Amino acid sequence: MKPYLRDKVPTTLSEIPDHTAYEAGYLVTKNAGWRNIRPVINLEKCVGCLQCYLYCPDGVISKEENKVRLDYDFCKGCGICKKMCHFDAIQMEVEK
Amino acid sequence: MKPYLRDKVPTTLSEIPDHTAYEAGYLVTKNAGWRNIRPVINLEKCVGCLQCYLYCPDGVISKEENKVRLDYDFCKGCGICKKMCHFDAIQMEVEK
Amino acid sequence: MAKEFLSGNEAFAYGIRLARPQVISAYPITPQTIVVEKLSEMVEDSSLQAEFIHVESEHSALSCAIGASAVGARAFTATSSQGLLYMAECLTYAAGGRFPIVMMNANRSTALPWNIYGDQRDSLSLLDCGWIQAYAENAQESLDLALMSYYIAEHKKVSTPFMANLDGFVLTHTYEVVEVPEAKQADLFLKPYVTENKLDLSYPKNLAFSVGPDHNTAFKFKEHLGILRAKEAIDEAEHKFNEIFGRQYTGLTESYHADDADYIIITLGSIAGLVRETVDKYREKGEKVGLLRIRYMRPFPNEEIAAVARNAKAIGILEKDISFGNEGTVYTNVNSALQKAGLSIPSSNFIGGLGGRNISEHEIESIFEELKNEKSTVSFLGIGGGEE
Amino acid sequence: MAKEFLSGNEAFAYGIRLARPQVISAYPITPQTIVVEKLSEMVEDSSLQAEFIHVESEHSALSCAIGASAVGARAFTATSSQGLLYMAECLTYAAGGRFPIVMMNANRSTALPWNIYGDQRDSLSLLDCGWIQAYAENAQESLDLALMSYYIAEHKKVSTPFMANLDGFVLTHTYEVVEVPEAKQADLFLKPYVTENKLDLSYPKNLAFSVGPDHNTAFKFKEHLGILRAKEAIDEAEHKFNEIFGRQYTGLTESYHADDADYIIITLGSIAGLVRETVDKYREKGEKVGLLRIRYMRPFPNEEIAAVARNAKAIGILEKDISFGNEGTVYTNVNSALQKAGLSIPSSNFIGGLGGRNISEHEIESIFEELKNEKSTVSFLGIGGGEE
Amino acid sequence: MMVNIRWHGRGGQGAFTAARLLGAAYSSHENKYALAFPSFGPERRGAPIQAFTKLDTKPVVNRSEVDKADYIIFLDDTLFTEGILTELKQGGKVLLNTKQSFENPRVLTINADSIAAEILKQPITNTIMLGAFASVFDGINLDDIKEAIRLFMPKKLHEKNIAAVEQAATQINRGVLL
Amino acid sequence: MMVNIRWHGRGGQGAFTAARLLGAAYSSHENKYALAFPSFGPERRGAPIQAFTKLDTKPVVNRSEVDKADYIIFLDDTLFTEGILTELKQGGKVLLNTKQSFENPRVLTINADSIAAEILKQPITNTIMLGAFASVFDGINLDDIKEAIRLFMPKKLHEKNIAAVEQAATQINRGVLL
Amino acid sequence: MSLTGKTLNEEEFFYGHKACAGCGGSLAVRIALKVLGERAVAVLPAGCMSAVAFNFPQLCFGNNAMISTFAGTASMLTGVEAGLRAQGINDFQAVGFAGDGGTADIGIQALSGAIDRNDNILYICYDNEAYMNTGIQKSSLTPFGAKTTTTPAGENIRGNLRPKKNMFEITAAHGIAYAATASIGFLNDFMNKVEKASKIKGTKYIHVIAPCPTGWGTATDETIDFAKEIVDCGLWYLAEYENDEFILNYKPTEFTDVETYLRKQSRFAQLTDEDIQVVRESRDKKWERIQKNYKVK
Amino acid sequence: MSLTGKTLNEEEFFYGHKACAGCGGSLAVRIALKVLGERAVAVLPAGCMSAVAFNFPQLCFGNNAMISTFAGTASMLTGVEAGLRAQGINDFQAVGFAGDGGTADIGIQALSGAIDRNDNILYICYDNEAYMNTGIQKSSLTPFGAKTTTTPAGENIRGNLRPKKNMFEITAAHGIAYAATASIGFLNDFMNKVEKASKIKGTKYIHVIAPCPTGWGTATDETIDFAKEIVDCGLWYLAEYENDEFILNYKPTEFTDVETYLRKQSRFAQLTDEDIQVVRESRDKKWERIQKNYKVK
Ligand SMILES: Cc1ncc(C[n+]2csc(CCOP(=O)(O)OP(=O)(O)O)c2C)c(N)n1
Ligand SMILES: Cc1ncc(C[n+]2csc(CCOP(=O)(O)OP(=O)(O)O)c2C)c(N)n1
Ligand code: SF4
Ligand code: SF4
Ligand code: SF4
Ligand code: SF4
Asked: Less crowded by CB within 10 Å, the N or C end of chain H?
């Protein structure tokens, strides 16, 4: 199962589990703040070779209709995807 | 240095060392009591091949004038020396 | 129930078999080995269905037990002395993770100097690590504790690992008559382990995680509550145990003529038998002395101690332990109980049995005599008091 | 003396360099790493002549130090938290062998849950293992302790390993102004290590041996005496230190307006600074409150505590620690000191800072307010009291 | 009165080095004291991090991170949001490395990136922001900062960083005027 | 009154097994209690060792090795010296496996080696000495010993050992008459 | 059928973690879990990968996962595997992900024990060549010449003086059921090895090179490049051990220059030409032995 | 000149100890010390050899010697070596004597670390094939089929099911300076290996088979016979590793029957003919590999 953002952040004594055990894949913060540059995919150029999908350390690129899609909530802007794209379909742009 | 029997057995609080450190090779008891059979060397037959000396686990056989000598204080009567002697110079005898 | 002639180690192994652990991982160390050897025989002869893992060290023994417990299996390990120290990291880990593992510890002196005989420095030096700590007096209690331990450890309110301590050699290697319950009865007493504290293939979990400054206290507080609540679970277990097996235990402590005594020896483990016999002798002479045997060091019996001490003129704590640079650890704990209860009575510490030194009946008598001076002192049996 | 802007870790490393250890063996762990990294830089740049050993674990780190000390070399190691627990077996070993190794411990919470921040559960849970335990308040004291530690540990009457504790992050990673003594002066203060407790090629020894029941107590008693006598050695060291460097320390404890105070907070480590400031505020208002800072947990300052508590109406023990199933360990020890001195005054336990939780000035005030109730309670800062 | 400075940067940008240099520079004087510390924990490359400097005329004993700061300094404007202003004490100021300009008088800006590119030839702005701070904050002067750079940074970096710091001091002044 | 029995043998001779069988046999009865334990520590092959049995009509609580014994039993006469007699309680007896004869009425002898050779076909004398003890000590009868052998020894050893025990019981009686 | 981006499980199991931008280790973990799927039960010791993923309430594994003690990866895996099996559960894969320090130093006792028992577990060492989570200290897998905080480079010493321990051959010397080396620069190879391993019963060990931009002093977008180059220049190799045999999976026709590889990383900045020659020679010596003892596939 | 009974140092350094009669381990320690002489500084972990020799006030080493923690043989040796060197002392030999359990199980972390650092120490493992001091429990060097107290033989299981870990090849896979196997049945070979090792700088590992009559269930006078036979029947071999190369020192012209070897020991009493066939086949497989990978001298 892919970890995903939850609404509820356990904080009170009773919400905190009795054991160091909790639901798998429970996310409460994003990683978008890590970026000062962001990858932008040019879907025109993308041929769906999936190299970016495969090599993204954060797994934020997913397959979509023979091309790829990027989850900016969790992309850290490392630039690997751009480097892996042999079709020049990804550009890194400065964050605003 | 070969460990050897000492007269003094430290027992009082002041004789006991301050650290877990003491003179090397300090013996206060013998092992003769371990034996119920004892090796007896027939010096006539002994040719000084030193196999018993070499293989005695307790090191109680020493070289002496081209033959060997046995320290009964520490021999345990295992019988290895007898087995190692190709010249039948060692016999195991029942202890009294 | 069958009557058998068993050593403490064997009795404990019989109790563990009745508890049906699913994973056993242990590493040999004198004087614990027999319990593990017995269990491996039981696994071999199929009288116990368990995975028996030959681990490479005690750290691995407890790590393995933690892994097994983390998937919801009932796990057992056993160790002693150096082994307990070598797994210290995992002790804290298991406690913080609230894994109800049971461990038998054969109380043994710790190096240096090396010594394989019984004293209680090993377990008492790790008293703070979050485990329930019980001390058995004899082989029967060892067996019964083994069975009860899982009931208590796994209790929903408790979820805390359990260390059952048996005095090395004088208890672990000494044979006596033991009643061995039947498996059927044991199954009535102890149900299979059910928990949400586990990795679960149908409901994935993340376990044994990090918690930052904000919430860390909450986890530690809950861990503390868990072990405090063991007290109720112990009462519950002992009550049920009595119903099924007809033997009643007495909770965190056992009082023997302590309630109305002027002079009380507080102690733990197998030496209590000899103290009890000595109390009888004094009582025959009409002297009001008593024994309070600590059965559990954690949770600590603060109330029980205060209750008997309230009427006493002096108490003596006899323990096989020294916290270097201060005093015996049991003594420190008992003193705190008195202090919190506002009881200002003389209490003295008698440190004995270190490295397996024998504690004689005569020495126990001399403790009672010493208590009559109504002073607070710390002394080593056989050596005496402080520096001078 | 040069004035430098250093973190606690760096200051400690500077102090160690002045002490000229011959063998350094350590394994990385947050928040200790910096002290080791600094020392490796010093070895690299030749400002320190020592063998620097990259060991494979903390058990090996201390084993290696023991080996070095066993041939008469001055040895240093450092660790924290999990690392301290992982080497627990060697702690007891070094103490029983009377090897005057110095170790810096960066106080950090212990897993589970994982947490890298500062609390004192690591060292306090291993209080009984026979080491001298000191707690520094700030970077200057860290440096000075590093240098004094060898003087004390190696003192003929002491021969006991020394653990210097620095609160993780708030002390180890926090930069402040520190006076750094010069090497020449330091050499006046601390002489090379000379001992008979070593393997010696000109006079062979057998070390680290076994001792059976008969004599074991004697060794344990001597070990106990050694650490008790550290008190004199500490006084001696601090006196000499003052002569040479012009800074005077105050032995096992440091009293700040505690002698005539009605309400006293007893605490240890870096939080003392904030308590001191709070005491100032109360004193300005004319309220008689005070601070007793414990500088050494072993040997334990029984007399010092009794002396200030004698005139107090209530005392509060503030510590970053909990012994699960009972109370904070410092509290237990302090209560025993009171009990032995026959002082029946209310004492309360305030457990704070677990897993690096901040202790605020406001909370310190609330402790003083709570003490005015003159009751004995145990509570967790931020959570409160017992079960309900 | 204690002055609290909070630094914001990303793992790898040197925010803590600046915090430390500031503390060292300030406390080099008689009767001036400082504490400096990073936000604790492992610093992950790219992750937003903080660092702290506390300055006072008596020894600083409160070792905790403070909620309300006198100055909040950003090495990177992608970390800045207006919400941060609520974390300022009254009269407190934000110092921001940015190309943009802000209307808010509590936000002082400087284009540290361009100074860095020009003088340091590297996108490292920590000492530049330190220089900017020194010219804004009365309690410290530029020479102390330069001295700290000489004492605590590798020798080969001295010259450039001192130049950058000087440049920053002039530019932030302009920033304030905006 | 408690009866203390001490066994002397060498590592590997089974002295402790005998001690344990005795305890089990005795305590199989209502209101009879026993403790049995070896001399603690690793048992080295060949090394002289001891084992202990304590018998009583109330639970035995004293777990320590006793200095003075009611019976001292030797599986091997090379371990015996006359000095040992001082470790007997008044009225106490030594049981000795030996070919020799002793004048001392406190020393009861039996040639267990020959019984072992004859019946067990192995030089193991522990059960034989146990049988001898049973016929000397009133508190226990031979049947209890046989039952303990059946319960605690591997099945294939039952028959021979029971035969050996019976033989021993008759022989030691003769020994006493000497 | 061999695994590729197209055929790989689309689910993500390692997501939202706080690893550095461009972290190679996190890619190794992510990909391995995609191969193993939801019935992977993961154990991670202290180290970057656990530190970035288990910060309650931010829990970044979608499958079952737990942190182990630093020394206890393999022994906790053993317990997990035995514990599930003891409950009659068999369709799962117990997998460990440990760093180089956690594997080759403190964790080797437990790993060696698990291999010796032939426990049915998969142990993956992501090798970033130092203790990274604690801030780049030397481990026994730190290569010769690398600067770390405990092997500083200065006037007297130019970084780490010891060669890299060969965990692959050490596990092979245990007679392990399956061992392999890999690199995240060659993901298809890695994926297929993980898949192959998951189908073998007994203990499996995969050692995957996973560059760490933070510790190596490289740009975040170069991680994969270095993971490729280290193989191409011959300082790492792709191989397997099975049935008592070593197999080399890939032999570069010609090695690229190690100097190029080294000079780009700031951890090697201080190396002299002689140092680099030492690296080159030890590489050649290693390849001689590979040539001799490995079957080339 | 090779060492023999005639040329060996006449001094005894291990004397008066309480090892069982006929103990093979004690012979290994005794002989090694006679080779190394009075400047040997010995470290022994918990185990039979320390347990029998260090009972204050009965101290049975004539040279400098100490007990280490069970896991800490190698790391304490490292400290001893570094500590003496730091004091300017160089003419000594730091030597460890550890049992099979202390070496291959709990001690392997420290041993692996010491080899990795190439510390100048000599580590001798006396292998009696089980944890003997605690009463014969299985270690990872217990051979297939052996009965121990933790691998009991009964209706369901016939003793230990796992093969013996190969410590010699594991240390070799570390690229150790020198490693060797030996047996106390071939004392001259053992003596010469100890002597050779003492002259090599760096880490040296010697693994010497040392039968234990108590644990093997054999007569006290047969110790040497078994130590010979285990080599003659091919279940053990005499070899060295040096300069990246394996060398076989001795190849029996024809193997004696393993069955004869096994049947005489009570630890193997329960083995069936099929079990023995398994032993035979695994021996042959091992020798095939030796044939292939070892240089025969
Ligand atoms: C017993 C113990 N010692 C030390 C540590 C501290 N520690 C945590 S992670 C870590 C570094 C891990 O390095 P590595 O295994 O190489 O993984 P990486 O961080 O590089 O991913 C260390 C030393 C610990 N948690 N436990
Ligand atoms: C940490 C630790 N665990 C367990 C022990 C107990 N112990 C002492 S000696 C020993 C057996 C040693 O076996 P081995 O290393 O094979 O040597 P041997 O006794 O066979 O000579 C064990 C398990 C210990 N001393 N320390
Ligand atoms: S920049 Fe890095 S994290 Fe973002 S999508 Fe590309 S590879 Fe993934
Ligand atoms: S019998 Fe054994 S101990 Fe005695 S001399 Fe012969 S070999 Fe040595
Ligand atoms: S330090 Fe290295 S290994 Fe750790 S998270 Fe960052 S990039 Fe990954
Ligand atoms: S048990 Fe074995 S190894 Fe130990 S002393 Fe006896 S014969 Fe030697």
From this structure: N
